[in-house]
Specification:
By secondary structure, the protein is mostly beta strands. The protein has helices at residues 124-132, 150-153, and strands spanning 23-34, 37-40, 45-49, 72-76, 82-88, 99-108, 111-121, 172-175, 180-188. Strands 1, 2, 5, 8 and 9 form a five-stranded mixed sheet that branches. A four-stranded antiparallel sheet has the order 4-3-6-7, with no helix packed on it. A hairpin with a 2-residue loop joins strand 1 (23-34) and strand 2. The two termini are 12 Å apart.
Protein backbone atom coordinates (compact mmCIF):
# COMPACT_ATOMS: atom_id res chain seq x y z
CA UNK A 1 0.00 0.00 0.00
CA UNK A 2 1.91 3.00 -1.33
CA UNK A 3 -0.86 5.51 -0.42
CA UNK A 4 -0.75 7.06 -3.89
CA UNK A 5 -3.96 9.01 -4.43
CA UNK A 6 -3.65 9.71 -8.14
CA UNK A 7 -5.32 9.10 -11.48
CA UNK A 8 -2.21 8.89 -13.71
CA UNK A 9 -0.12 5.99 -12.42
CA UNK A 10 2.44 5.91 -15.23
CA UNK A 11 4.86 8.24 -13.45
CA UNK A 12 7.24 7.12 -10.72
CA UNK A 13 7.19 10.01 -8.21
CA UNK A 14 10.60 8.97 -6.87
CA UNK A 15 12.40 10.09 -10.03
CA UNK A 16 9.78 11.48 -12.45
CA UNK A 17 10.27 8.69 -14.99
CA UNK A 18 7.32 7.55 -17.14
CA UNK A 19 6.74 3.89 -17.90
CA UNK A 20 6.92 3.04 -21.63
CA UNK A 21 4.06 1.24 -23.32
CA UNK A 22 0.74 1.80 -25.03
CA UNK A 23 -1.36 4.27 -23.00
CA UNK A 24 -4.44 2.72 -21.38
CA UNK A 25 -7.43 4.77 -20.21
CA UNK A 26 -9.26 2.67 -17.61
CA UNK A 27 -12.73 3.51 -16.29
CA UNK A 28 -14.09 1.43 -13.41
CA UNK A 29 -17.67 1.65 -12.17
CA UNK A 30 -18.40 0.24 -8.71
CA UNK A 31 -21.89 -0.38 -7.37
CA UNK A 32 -23.21 -2.23 -4.34
CA UNK A 33 -26.17 -4.50 -3.82
CA UNK A 34 -29.05 -2.75 -2.08
CA UNK A 35 -32.18 -4.77 -1.32
CA UNK A 36 -33.22 -6.23 -4.70
CA UNK A 37 -31.19 -3.81 -6.82
CA UNK A 38 -27.94 -1.90 -6.98
CA UNK A 39 -26.78 1.62 -6.17
CA UNK A 40 -23.56 3.54 -6.91
CA UNK A 41 -20.84 2.71 -4.40
CA UNK A 42 -19.83 6.25 -3.49
CA UNK A 43 -16.68 7.03 -1.54
CA UNK A 44 -15.04 3.60 -1.89
CA UNK A 45 -11.30 3.51 -2.49
CA UNK A 46 -10.25 1.67 -5.65
CA UNK A 47 -6.59 0.59 -5.86
CA UNK A 48 -5.02 -0.78 -9.01
CA UNK A 49 -1.50 -2.04 -9.70
CA UNK A 50 0.14 -4.08 -12.42
CA UNK A 51 3.47 -4.93 -14.00
CA UNK A 52 5.36 -2.83 -16.52
CA UNK A 53 5.62 -3.57 -20.23
CA UNK A 54 8.65 -5.72 -19.42
CA UNK A 55 6.86 -7.63 -16.64
CA UNK A 56 8.29 -5.81 -13.59
CA UNK A 57 6.32 -4.62 -10.54
CA UNK A 58 7.44 -1.61 -8.55
CA UNK A 59 8.59 -2.02 -4.95
CA UNK A 60 9.43 -5.73 -5.20
CA UNK A 61 12.80 -6.79 -3.79
CA UNK A 62 13.11 -9.82 -6.07
CA UNK A 63 12.84 -7.52 -9.09
CA UNK A 64 15.26 -4.86 -7.80
CA UNK A 65 12.50 -2.25 -7.73
CA UNK A 66 12.29 -1.50 -3.99
CA UNK A 67 11.10 2.08 -3.25
CA UNK A 68 9.85 2.53 -6.82
CA UNK A 69 6.18 3.49 -7.15
CA UNK A 70 5.30 3.18 -10.83
CA UNK A 71 2.00 1.66 -11.97
CA UNK A 72 0.32 1.86 -8.56
CA UNK A 73 -2.39 4.18 -7.29
CA UNK A 74 -5.90 4.61 -5.94
CA UNK A 75 -8.91 6.86 -6.47
CA UNK A 76 -12.11 7.34 -4.44
CA UNK A 77 -15.32 6.67 -6.35
CA UNK A 78 -17.49 9.67 -7.24
CA UNK A 79 -21.26 9.98 -6.72
CA UNK A 80 -21.88 7.66 -9.67
CA UNK A 81 -19.39 5.09 -8.36
CA UNK A 82 -16.81 5.87 -11.04
CA UNK A 83 -13.02 6.11 -10.97
CA UNK A 84 -10.68 6.82 -13.86
CA UNK A 85 -7.03 5.86 -14.31
CA UNK A 86 -4.41 6.60 -16.94
CA UNK A 87 -1.81 3.85 -17.17
CA UNK A 88 -0.20 1.62 -19.79
CA UNK A 89 -1.34 -1.66 -21.27
CA UNK A 90 0.23 -4.21 -18.89
CA UNK A 91 3.04 -6.50 -19.88
CA UNK A 92 3.33 -10.12 -18.77
CA UNK A 93 5.59 -12.36 -16.72
CA UNK A 94 6.20 -16.09 -16.51
CA UNK A 95 3.25 -18.16 -15.33
CA UNK A 96 0.55 -15.51 -15.59
CA UNK A 97 -1.80 -14.15 -18.23
CA UNK A 98 -2.00 -10.38 -18.72
CA UNK A 99 -3.90 -8.81 -15.81
CA UNK A 100 -4.45 -5.80 -13.57
CA UNK A 101 -4.86 -6.18 -9.81
CA UNK A 102 -7.78 -4.31 -8.24
CA UNK A 103 -8.87 -3.74 -4.66
CA UNK A 104 -12.01 -1.94 -3.39
CA UNK A 105 -11.84 -0.71 0.18
CA UNK A 106 -14.14 1.14 2.59
CA UNK A 107 -12.96 2.98 5.69
CA UNK A 108 -15.22 3.70 8.66
CA UNK A 109 -13.96 6.12 11.31
CA UNK A 110 -10.47 5.72 9.90
CA UNK A 111 -10.50 1.92 10.02
CA UNK A 112 -10.91 -0.43 7.06
CA UNK A 113 -14.36 -2.01 7.26
CA UNK A 114 -14.60 -3.72 3.85
CA UNK A 115 -12.16 -5.04 1.25
CA UNK A 116 -12.65 -6.77 -2.10
CA UNK A 117 -9.61 -8.07 -3.99
CA UNK A 118 -9.58 -9.33 -7.57
CA UNK A 119 -7.99 -9.02 -11.01
CA UNK A 120 -9.04 -7.81 -14.45
CA UNK A 121 -8.15 -9.80 -17.58
CA UNK A 122 -7.63 -8.95 -21.26
CA UNK A 123 -8.78 -10.43 -24.57
CA UNK A 124 -5.88 -12.45 -26.01
CA UNK A 125 -6.25 -11.34 -29.64
CA UNK A 126 -6.39 -7.71 -28.53
CA UNK A 127 -3.22 -8.17 -26.46
CA UNK A 128 -1.39 -9.76 -29.40
CA UNK A 129 -2.23 -6.75 -31.57
CA UNK A 130 -1.06 -4.27 -28.93
CA UNK A 131 2.20 -6.09 -28.29
CA UNK A 132 3.00 -6.51 -31.99
CA UNK A 133 2.92 -2.76 -32.51
CA UNK A 134 5.14 -1.65 -29.61
CA UNK A 135 8.75 -2.74 -28.94
CA UNK A 136 8.42 -2.03 -25.20
CA UNK A 137 6.69 -5.40 -24.83
CA UNK A 138 9.52 -7.39 -26.42
CA UNK A 139 9.22 -10.19 -28.93
CA UNK A 140 9.26 -13.30 -26.73
CA UNK A 141 6.08 -15.39 -26.95
CA UNK A 142 3.93 -15.41 -23.81
CA UNK A 143 4.04 -18.70 -21.92
CA UNK A 144 0.61 -18.35 -20.26
CA UNK A 145 -2.73 -17.35 -21.77
CA UNK A 146 -6.11 -16.91 -20.10
CA UNK A 147 -6.96 -20.51 -20.89
CA UNK A 148 -3.92 -21.79 -18.99
CA UNK A 149 -3.80 -19.21 -16.20
CA UNK A 150 -4.60 -20.77 -12.81
CA UNK A 151 -6.39 -17.70 -11.46
CA UNK A 152 -8.41 -17.03 -14.62
CA UNK A 153 -9.50 -20.66 -14.94
CA UNK A 154 -9.89 -21.27 -11.21
CA UNK A 155 -12.67 -20.70 -8.69
CA UNK A 156 -13.85 -17.49 -7.08
CA UNK A 157 -12.79 -16.74 -3.51
CA UNK A 158 -16.29 -17.46 -2.20
CA UNK A 159 -16.57 -20.68 -4.17
CA UNK A 160 -19.82 -19.60 -5.84
CA UNK A 161 -17.99 -19.86 -9.18
CA UNK A 162 -16.16 -23.18 -9.31
CA UNK A 163 -14.24 -22.76 -12.57
CA UNK A 164 -13.44 -20.08 -15.13
CA UNK A 165 -13.90 -17.18 -12.71
CA UNK A 166 -11.75 -14.92 -14.86
CA UNK A 167 -14.24 -14.74 -17.72
CA UNK A 168 -16.44 -12.63 -15.42
CA UNK A 169 -13.62 -10.09 -15.03
CA UNK A 170 -12.76 -9.36 -18.65
CA UNK A 171 -12.23 -5.71 -19.50
CA UNK A 172 -14.20 -4.15 -22.35
CA UNK A 173 -11.50 -2.88 -24.72
CA UNK A 174 -11.52 -0.33 -27.54
CA UNK A 175 -8.61 0.34 -29.90
CA UNK A 176 -8.18 4.12 -30.31
CA UNK A 177 -5.10 3.71 -32.57
CA UNK A 178 -2.73 5.67 -30.33
CA UNK A 179 -4.13 4.38 -27.05
CA UNK A 180 -6.56 1.83 -25.62
CA UNK A 181 -9.76 2.49 -23.71
CA UNK A 182 -10.99 -0.04 -21.15
CA UNK A 183 -14.12 -0.29 -19.03
CA UNK A 184 -14.92 -2.45 -16.02
CA UNK A 185 -17.96 -2.86 -13.80
CA UNK A 186 -17.91 -4.30 -10.29
CA UNK A 187 -20.91 -5.03 -8.07
CA UNK A 188 -20.00 -5.52 -4.40
CA UNK A 189 -22.22 -7.45 -2.01
CA UNK A 190 -21.17 -6.19 1.40
CA UNK A 191 -23.29 -8.82 3.14
CA UNK A 192 -20.75 -11.45 2.06
CA UNK A 193 -17.99 -9.71 3.99
CA UNK A 194 -14.48 -8.98 2.75
CA UNK A 195 -12.66 -11.29 0.36
CA UNK A 196 -9.87 -13.28 1.99
CA UNK A 197 -6.33 -11.98 1.67
CA UNK A 198 -4.55 -13.47 -1.31
CA UNK A 199 -1.21 -15.26 -1.17
CA UNK A 200 1.45 -13.14 -2.94
CA UNK A 201 2.29 -14.39 -6.40
CA UNK A 202 -0.23 -16.37 -8.39
CA UNK A 203 2.17 -18.15 -10.70
CA UNK A 204 5.76 -19.35 -11.01
CA UNK A 205 7.97 -16.40 -10.11
CA UNK A 206 4.88 -14.20 -9.78
CA UNK A 207 5.62 -11.23 -7.50
CA UNK A 208 2.50 -9.17 -7.87
CA UNK A 209 -0.34 -10.87 -5.99
Amino acid sequence: DEDLNRSDIRVDPTDGSVQPGVPLSLAINVSQKVDCGTAPFTGAYVDIWHCSASGVYSDVAAQNSVSKKFLRGFQPTDRQGNVYFTTIYPGWYQGRAVHIHVKVRVFTAGNESYEFTSQFFFDEAFTDKVYAGNPAYGTKARDTLNSTDGIYSGASSTGTITTGAGKNLMLTLRDKTQWVEADAKLICDLSLGSSPDQVPGGGPGGPGG
